[in-house]
Amino acid sequence: MGKHSIFHSDTPESDKIDRLVVLPFMKSVDIAVKSIRVRFFRSLITTVSLVLAVSFLSFTQVGSDMANGLLSTGDPALRQALIRSGYDLQPVDMRVENSPKQRWIIVLSLLVCVVGIVNAQLMAVTERFREIGTMKCLGALDRFILRLFLLEAGIQGLIGSSAGAVIGGAFAMVNFLLRFGTESLTTLSWTQAGLSVAGATLVGCMLSLIGVMYPAIVAARMQPVEAMRVEQ
């Protein structure tokens, strides 16, 4: 971590010194990873909520992909089996789409996930008052603090979203395998299923970053003196 003092001799305030902390990006990543390890259980709670929300999204999307694979065969028996399983299919329908009820459930689950992330991150900011104050006293700028929180959220989001998307997709496949047999796997478009899993992962990462944005701004704007005098 290097510190550079910049003097402004061409202004009336020539005695003013701006202190800037220069930190390599990979060092910031290392600090973020260590912070997650120190607060492992709090990070785990945040990650689990993200895993559950993304799992449900992935389960729904991959399930639709598998149902579409079965419909693509044109087999009337498979169409009737899907209808008996709860899919609302009209005689002319050639694709399965999520019902409005499913969409609302997905949106609500993702919204609850974001609220949980915001709450957990705000508590994390409260616990780290002295740490943030110390870094600011050493010359850390607002964007440096903001970057640390966003990196932590990004790492947690990537891990939690990837795990949730894979788990949800796997459960959808097992569910269809038990209901419709091996034909549900042989008719599946694996490319489309992979895109659904990747899409769910991306959504989870975005939710993690959105959830941490407000707490990160609060931490970045914190005054060093106020942060240092908070009793832990």
Structure notes:
- This protein has 232 residues and is mainly alpha-helical.
- It has one domain.
- Helices cover 74% and strands 5% of the residues.
- It is built from nine helices and two strands; from the N terminus they run ββααααααααα.
- Helix 4 runs parallel beside helix 8.
Distance between the termini: 27 Å
Radius of gyration: 24 Å
**How many β-strand runs?**
2
- pLDDT < 50 stretches: 1-18
Structural key phrases:
232 residues; mainly alpha; 9 helices; elongated
Short description:
By secondary structure, the chain is mostly helical. It contains nine helices and two strands. It has one domain (28-224).
Tell me the layout of helices and strands.
Blueprint: E1 2-7, E2 17-22, H1 25-38, H2 40-71, H3 76-84, H4 100-127, H5 129-137, H6 142-180, H7 183-186, H8 190-220, H9 224-228
